[in-house]
Write a structure and sequence with these properties.
The protein has about 325 residues and is α+β, with helices and mostly antiparallel strands. The chain contains 12 helices and 19 strands.
Length: about 325
Amino acid sequence: MNEWYTRQEVADLLGISKATVYHYAKQKKIIKIEDPYRLIREARYEKKEVDALAEERKRHQPTGLRPSELAKQLGVTTQRIYALIRETELPVDELPVGDERTIYSIPDETAAWIQHEIERTASSRGTRVEFYDAKLDVALYQCFRTQQGQDLRVLRNEHQEWGFYLQSRTWIPFIDGMHVYQYKAAYSIHQPNRRVRGYTDFLLPKDLHESFEFLDFVYQVWGIENIRLREQETHMALSIKSGDVGLSISVPETLTENIIKTFLELGDIVMEEGKWTLISGYRRTTFDLPNNLLDTLQGLSNEKDISMSEYVEKAIQEKFRRDEQAE
């Protein structure tokens, strides 16, 4: 058995780059086997020191979640997790990986606090990452069709993986559904991005077939670019950019005006033949604020990964609640 490793083997064992292996040798963390006559094409490193360093790293390897893993679990951006790490005084483990980067590991207590903060400061509307996967180009509850013509809906399982549940409750991963079973999307979920003039909010009960028909209709007419969707235990909270939209498809007969208006949560809708007008439940207003206060608001809203309007709305609502509790 060899008593040495190549540079690539050292990099793989220690989880570092090949350039960092070179620096480790210069720093005497590992020992490079001298080859003054250049008889060996690739540099070699003594096995004993590399194994000892790998074992030490294994013993001290944090067991918590990486920021990217926690972000995926909570449906937010990794930048949002890093912003919250900077806010908290709770511990976050840091493990240097070579000379150029650090791995962060979030212990359970800190992860629980981050989750609470995200839930506490969450926008009242869903974010795109909650209902759309850009890599797979698939949206929550999007309708797919089997080769036999059976309709299936895209779901996420308890591990936040995309796929399909069959009637037998058999789980089919999304990639298998597409490439093994040849499931096909029943419609496109993309439309041109419209300017935001506010949102009209709907609440769709999951126990109504019409709710999913309406969502199919919305995906086709507005596309994922112009909506937000947040899954709740018994409902789907759907927000659509307000304004006029020409209907590119016919409205299903089961979606009567009465049914659709029962879904309305905030705002209004005017339904004309070939065109709908969605009216926002918000009214635009203007405040004059000092520049330094505006800069502070911008910074705070960026850290919360929400707009300034949403941040101010939440702050005012919390102030009203505190005043009511104090009375």
